[in-house]
Amino acid sequence: MENEGKSLRFRGECFQKLQRHLLGNPHGxxxxxxxxxxxxxxxxxxxxxxCRYLExxxxxxxxxxxxxxxxxxxxxxxxxxxxxxxxxxxVHSHPFHSEGGAEFSSSDWTGFQEVxxxxxxxLPNRPYFALVFAxxxxxxxxxxxxxxxxxxxxxxxxKNDEKLAADQSRQGRG
Length: 174
Prior knowledge:
Elements: E1 6-9, H1 14-23, E2 32-40, E3 45-53, E4 59-63, E5 66-69, H2 73-84, E6 87-93, H3 106-122, E7 128-134, E8 137-143, E9 151-157, E10 163-165
């Protein structure tokens, strides 16, 4: 099979539930979830096996333009990924339309600088994924180890073999 870039595969109803959770907030606030995925290096694909949709009480701060996890939440999900022996996938929403489609914000990039190396250290030999969803698409990144710049997540693969392409490329960002 020709390598078409990194992808994330969903099964069952997880993807639809994730979209409802991320983009269905009646107040228009950003939402977040963590997914746990088996990494298949030969296929360059993470297979999502478990989803954790964050609740309001798991945020220190939450608005239309940003969010911050409550103390201990990140440690809990890292431990869960460790116990499951899976990769961690951070997902959040930008609940507004933008001209260029979904894209990580400057605040997102600052957050990556603060946590990615720590997550990869706590979860060795497993990539870390980050996704952002907007009403008009998604963007995704994959870190294979802490010394590398992230690579673009090229697609999401759904249970019916539908393939969703990401909105952005890694070039020119960060």
